[in-house]
Amino acid sequence: MIFGGRSCILENRDGRQKPDKQDGGSIHAVTVPQGKGARTMWEPDGDTLLFFDGHLSALPLFEALENRLFEAFPEAEKRVQKTQITYYHRHVFACVSFTRVKRKAELPPVWLVLTLGLPYPLESERVAVKTEPCPGRWTTHIVIGAEKELDGELFSWLQEAYDFSERK
């Protein structure tokens, strides 16, 4: 396959070659190393592209989030649904969606919502909405509008959500 003018091999996240998209998982196009400067490129699967229909401008932001998420949680799995993309290991720990958690005027031009399940109400200006759907479980919605917001603080909350989901 030619991707960005370079020869590529399609692989799963675990590195096995994947000739097609039959299993519905995320496909990453990996450049065949050709000396200095060869780098990995990300290519969304068909389900992910359908999810982003109408929100294609947020795809690069999602790519950055997903790459960092799988780097931090390599054993995580992804499930693309109609209204959200869910990340889980044994249980769900995070979701990405376009749920309107703020008024349109308060949203950045490009945005997505990261939802975390935490054992406590997260107190931060970055939190758009938090609810306690059942005692001891807080659903926390965070609007992300720029790649610089994918910082250590956000990933510490993701780690807490992951650890909380593993204790269930």
What features would you describe in this structure?
There is one protein chain. The protein is α+β, with helices and mostly antiparallel strands. The chain has 2 domains: 1-43, no CATH class; 46-166, Aspartate Aminotransferase, domain 1. It is 21% helix and 30% strand. It has a 6-stranded antiparallel beta sheet. Strands 1-2-3 form a 3-stranded antiparallel beta sheet, with no helix packed on it. The longest helix is centred in the last third of the chain and has 15 residues, at 152-166. It is globular and about 35 Å long.
Q: What layout of secondary structure does this protein have?
A:
Blueprint: E1 2-3, E2 6-11, E3 28-31, H1 46-51, H2 59-72, E4 77-80, E5 84-88, E6 92-97, E7 112-118, E8 127-134, E9 137-144, H3 152-166
Antiparallel strand pairs: 1-2, 2-3, 4-5, 5-6, 6-7, 7-9, 8-9
Strand content: 25-35%
**Tally of separate domains:** 2
Counting DSSP H or I runs of 4 or more residues, the number of helices is: 3
Helix-strand pattern, N to C?
Answer: EEEHHEEEEEEH
Largest sheet: 6 strands, antiparallel
What is the general shape? globular
Structural class: alpha+beta
Runs with pLDDT <50, length 5+? 1-39
User: Spatial order of the strands in the main sheet?
Assistant: 4-5-6-7-9-8
Q: Fraction of residues in helices?
A: 10-25%
**Looking at CATH, which topology of the largest domain would you report?**
Aspartate Aminotransferase, domain 1
Q: Look at the structure and give the CATH class of the largest domain.
A: Alpha Beta
Mean pLDDT: 82
Distance between the termini: 43 Å
CATH architecture of the largest domain: Alpha-Beta Complex
Strands, count: 9
Rounded Rg: 17 Å
